[in-house]
Amino acid sequence: MPAIPPWSKEAHLEMMATANITKSILSISSPGTHITSDVSLTRSLTRECNAYAASLAASEPQKFGFWAALPLPDVEASLEEIERAVEEGCEGFGLMTNYGGFYLGDERFKRVFERLNALGSKVFVHPTKPCTHIAQSTGGVHADEIAEGEKVDATPFGAQYPIPIFEFFFDTARAVVNLFASGTIDACPNLTFIIPHAGGALPPLLTRFIQFSSVVPGGRQLDAAKVRAQLDSQFYFDLAGFVFDGDEGGQGQLKALVDGFGIGWERLVYGSDFPFTQTRFVERFAGRMKGGLECLFDEEQRAMIYEGNAKKLLERGKIAKSASL
């Protein structure tokens, strides 16, 4: 992120009143709580953030809920934090697309996803800075300065453009593709994912990564009908960002997602991106959204997108504190 804007409970409630939002599900945005290699800092920061979010939700349950953060890539600490957050009443968990270059779906995270699946959890995925690990020296420029296994940023235009402009969309696609290709979605049928920004750069890649799965040596072959069924049953997409285009808002990214890739209104929910999107822009985007949704959906469908789908999502499959280990 170019900068992290200030946030307060009072400012958030003011934004909600301005945009006619009745309840917010709070979460940690990029860069998440894994901001340095200091494991103890990641653990303590995650715990502090979740405890604070839980206190907000407990003090005003009609206004706030929260997606709990996890101190990934620390698996043991994450398993412990899952149990604490469930006891504190989280609605689900908010995960970054990658943690130091380890993407959702990585084998390292298998036990975390197994536990989340056992809980029937909801997982909100938020993009962050893309990065990778150097498996071996490539002999390229400055290769001698990069240690094998070291994390490096994968942002070739990072010096020219703020990373959220398009790198976030690409990282969303990487994470979701890896969740499917790794077999995580197959192994976790009880998980429900919420993907921001109308899927980012994922939709145009759906057919491509499914079809190529059959020709990649050693890869997992994906079935198009099964992936479609999983998208229709395990995935929601929020409408944060610039997903509406055209004079009336009926063109652009959302129309492509709905008309081009068959994602129904039942899988769409509102998203604000506050505070990175300031209150005045949240209000402006709400007006743009009104016009765009009116072009694409009838009144009953719009009501579900604005409120009904989110209510069903939150009411369905409440995480049980007594779920067995």
TrEMBL record:
EC number: 4.1.1.52
Gene Ontology CC entries for this record: cytosol
Biological-process GO terms, alphabetical: secondary metabolic process
Keyword tags: Decarboxylase, Lyase, Metal-binding, Zinc
Claim: Cell membrane is one of the keywords in the record: no
Domain of life from the UniProt record: Eukaryota
Similarity comment: Belongs to the metallo-dependent hydrolases superfamily. ACMSD family.
Record bears the keyword Phosphoprotein: no
Pfam families attached to this UniProt entry: Amidohydro_2
Reaction equation(s) it catalyzes: 6-methylsalicylate + H(+) = 3-methylphenol + CO2
Amidohydrolase-related domain sequence ranges: 9-315
Enzyme class: lyase
PANTHER family: 2-AMINO-3-CARBOXYLMUCONATE-6-SEMIALDEHYDE DECARBOXYLASE (PTHR21240), AMIDOHYDROLASE-RELATED DOMAIN-CONTAINING PROTEIN (PTHR21240:SF29)
Protein's name according to its UniProt entry: 6-methylsalicylate decarboxylase
GO molecular function: 6-methylsalicylate decarboxylase activity; hydrolase activity; metal ion binding
